[in-house]
């Protein structure tokens, strides 16, 4: 199926076999070194490709944060209106790009609300599509270009569960959100800069009051899309 045009797809830059091998070596070195220091990333390939490879490889999920010194993630209760998200847990992504969005947003200095998602779609018996993304923040914050360097943490997925697929008519939607009810210790971390995020110029701005009104009227209508 073809999702609405406001969902964007992962950049069509496929690493060659040599680059994938270099990703595997770097990941092996990072896991052996541990999370005390960020991964020493010296590869020519963009960091998002490495993170996508890590997420697609299996066994690890990713969490983006502006805090570079987290040694242990504790379950927290988020403000979320979905059944899966409304729980006390550590949340992470089974995708390399989605957590970068959280890592580079300076929410300490610029108050904002976030609308975002990473999903794969399937119509009927079709296989799941490639990842699709939606990124938006409060319009008044977006005008300030609230970007900053951040950190993407690599977490073992042993205690995590994947959000069950959503069924919207004949369309199955698999979100890349994972949750762990138990504390999680990261196994590695990577510093990312705003310019590392390939969708930086595609982060949308939304009007908070209009979005909340639309969400109240249609709770299942994510992302309550509008242009500002």
Descriptive report:
- This protein is of the alpha+beta class and 228 residues long.
- Helix content is 21%, strand content 25%.
- The chain has 5 helices and 12 strands.
- The strands form 3 sheets. Strands 1, 4, 5, 8, 9 and 12 form a 6-stranded mixed sheet that branches.
- A hairpin with an 8-residue loop joins strand 4 (114-123) and strand 5 (132-138).
- The longest helix has 17 residues, at 17-33.
- The chain is globular and about 50 Å long.
- The protein starts with 7 loop residues before the first strand and ends in an 11-residue tail after the last helix.
- The relative contact order is 0.22.
- The mean pLDDT is 91.
Report a brief summary of the structure.
The chain has 228 residues and is α+β, with helices and mostly antiparallel strands.
Question: Key features?
Answer:
228 residues, alpha+beta, 6-stranded mixed β-sheet, 3-stranded antiparallel β-sheet, 12 strands, 25% strand, globular
Query: How can the largest sheet be summarized?
Result: 6 strands, mixed
Overall radius of gyration: 17 Å
| Helix segment tally | 5
Structural class: alpha+beta
The run of helices and strands is: EHHEEHEEHEEEEEEEH
Shape by Cα distribution: globular
The protein's oligomeric status is single chain
The total of beta strands comes to 12
Could you estimate the helical fraction of the residues in percent? 10-25%
Unreliable stretches (pLDDT < 50, length at least 5) are: none
Report strand %. 25-35%
Straight-line distance between termini: 27 Å
Average predicted local confidence, pLDDT? 91
């Amino acid at each position: 199926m073809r999702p609405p045009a406001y969902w964007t797809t992962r950049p069509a830059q496929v690493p060659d076999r040599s680059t994938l091998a270099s990703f595997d070596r770097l990941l092996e070195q990072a896991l052996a070194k541990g999370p005390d220091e960020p991964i020493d990333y010296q590869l020519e390939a963009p960091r998002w490709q490495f993170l996508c490879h890590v997420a697609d490889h299996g066994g690890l999920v990713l969490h983006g944060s502006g805090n570079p010194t987290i040694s242990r993630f504790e379950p927290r209760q988020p403000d979320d209106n979905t059944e899966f998200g409304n729980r006390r847990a550590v949340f992470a992504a089974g995708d390399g790009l989605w957590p970068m969005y959280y890592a580079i947003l300076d929410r300490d200095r610029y108050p904002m609300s976030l609308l975002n998602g990473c999903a794969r779609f399937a119509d009927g018996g079709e296989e799941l599509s490639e990842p699709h993304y939606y990124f938006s923040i409060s319009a008044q914050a977006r005008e300030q270009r609230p970007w900053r360097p951040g950190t993407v943490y690599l977490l073992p997925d042993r205690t995590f569960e994947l959000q069950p697929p959503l069924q919207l008519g004949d369309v199955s939607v698999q979100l890349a959100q994972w949750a762990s009810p138990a504390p999680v210790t990261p196994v590695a971390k990577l510093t990312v800069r705003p310019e590392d995020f390939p969708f930086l110029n595609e982060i949308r701005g939304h009007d908070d009051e209009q979005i909340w009104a639309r969400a109240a009227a249609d709770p299942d209508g994510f992302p309550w899309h509008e242009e500002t």
